Amino acid sequence: MRARLVAGNWKMHGSLAANARLLDALKAGLEQAEGLGYAVCAPFPYLAQVSQALSGSRIAWGAQNVSEHDSGAYTGEVSGAMLKEFGCRFAIVGHSERRGLYGEGDSTVAAKFVAARRAGLMPILCIGETLEQRERGETENVVSRQLDAVLAAAEIAALADAVLAYEPVWAIGTGRNATPQQAQDVHAFIRARLGASDRALAANVTILYGGSVKPNNAPELFAMPDVDGGLIGGASLAAKDFIAICAAARR
Ligand code: 13P
User: What is the pLDDT of residues 149-174, one digit of tens each?
Assistant: First the structure.
């Protein structure tokens, strides 16, 4: 059985006080479930707090970005080795907000993926199309291009213990989620594309869906055969909602 995961992407939200309340509630409310992992991806300054709060718990943590460089004169950047020092297991790379608002192109995202792996982090690689691209029928071309950039920079084996997240840009923060069938179709396409290089690896890659996942739509999304959990934005900030979404990912 491939690993399932529900990860919260807090984005640029939180405070020491709010995080403490949220983390306490998650520790109390997230139950052990066979084959299902939990994680929160916090803003950099809060990683020390998160690491202290979650050490020894069943919840892993990660960052929302990582530098493609290991060290050097890169003002404002954070390396994979630094994230490891704070116990991060994951680093999100290529989130559409990084691609769209901060100009991260496919080759930068691929370099970040490789840097995260080099540091011993598990990248959560985000891919997905915009509304215009979907309407033009380009969804498969776009996710292929985004995936191929990473495959050109890393060996296919580097995907073996990575996590992919299909996040259609039009579904992020809009309250408009992809239908379960739309998500399933793209997830199956992604798996088949990886399968062309390595079938066994593709069968085991965890592919999350992200984009307006809420307690009411999580059960039907997570019931699709190629949807292995979720990357949750807004709803990961409310303990009750995140716990309900995690419960929906149990098998
Ligand atoms: P929302 O769940 O707020 O739509 O955000 C999804 C997302 O971007 C997760 O990375």
Answer: 999 999 899 999 789 999 999 999 99
Residue 208's H or E segment, with its range, is: strand 206-210
89 and 61 Cβ atoms separated by less than 8 Å: yes
- Nearest 10 degrees: Cα torsion 110, 115, 116, 118: 130
Check pocket membership of 173 for ligand 1, CB cut-off 6 A.
Answer: yes
The ligand 1 atom nearest the CA atom of 96: 8
109 φ, ψ (degrees, to nearest 5): -60, -40
pLDDT one-digit tens code per residue, 60-115: 999 999 999 999 999 999 999 999 999 999 999 999 999 999 999 999 999 999 99
Q: Is 218 in the pocket of ligand 1 (CB under 6 A)?
A: no
Of 97, 104, 167, 187, which is the active-site residue? 167
Concerning whether 104 is annotated as a catalytic residue, the answer is no
Ligand 1 and 9: CB distance under 6 A: yes
CA–centroid distance, 72 to ligand 1, in Å, is: 32
Residue 94 near residue 125 (C-beta atoms within 8 A): yes
- Characterize 70-81 residue by residue with b for buried, 16 or more Cβ atoms within 10 angstroms of its Cβ, and e for exposed: eeeeeeeebbbb
CATH for 4-234, among 3.30.2010.30, 3.40.190.10, 3.30.470.20, 3.20.20.70? 3.20.20.70
Q: Which of 96, 95, 93, 176 is nearest to 130 (CA)?
A: 96
